């Protein structure tokens, strides 16, 4: 096994801290935002960006450690980037349906 260079360890540490900060911002938005529709965007976006940062750190570290490209870790953020918007859309539709059933005035009427 190869030793990981100091510059790579510094970049990995920076990516890990950045990913953790994005996760913290997403959690803070989930707790502090007042409305369901506002709360669902903050964790979705922040956690996806945080996952990209952590996957980048993992790819860099293990590629340097192994001495060859280790790219299978990219599958995690790729699948997150595909599934998170779909899940967010389904949650938004369910929230709009529940708000209409409750008779809230802020929700636009149904189109059809």
UniProtKB/TrEMBL annotation:
GO terms assigned for molecular function: sodium:proton antiporter activity
Listed InterPro entries: PhaG_MnhG_YufB
Pfam family, one: PhaG_MnhG_YufB
Protein name per Swiss-Prot or TrEMBL: Na+/H+ antiporter subunit G
Annotated source species: Piscinibacter gummiphilus
């Amino acid at each position: 096994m190869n030793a990981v260079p100091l510059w790579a360890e510094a970049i990995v540490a920076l990516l890990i801290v950045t990913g953790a900060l994005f996760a913290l911002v997403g959690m803070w938005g989930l707790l502090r935002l007042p409305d369901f529709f506002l709360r669902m965007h903050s964790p979705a976006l922040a956690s996806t960006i945080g996952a990209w940062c952590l996957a980048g750190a993992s790819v860099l570290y293990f590629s340097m450690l192994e001495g060859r490209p280790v790219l299978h870790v990219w599958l995690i953020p790729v699948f997150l980037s595909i599934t998170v918007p779909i899940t967010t859309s389904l949650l938004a539709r369910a929230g709009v349906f529940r708000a209409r059933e409750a008779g809230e005035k802020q929700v636009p009427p149904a189109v059809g």
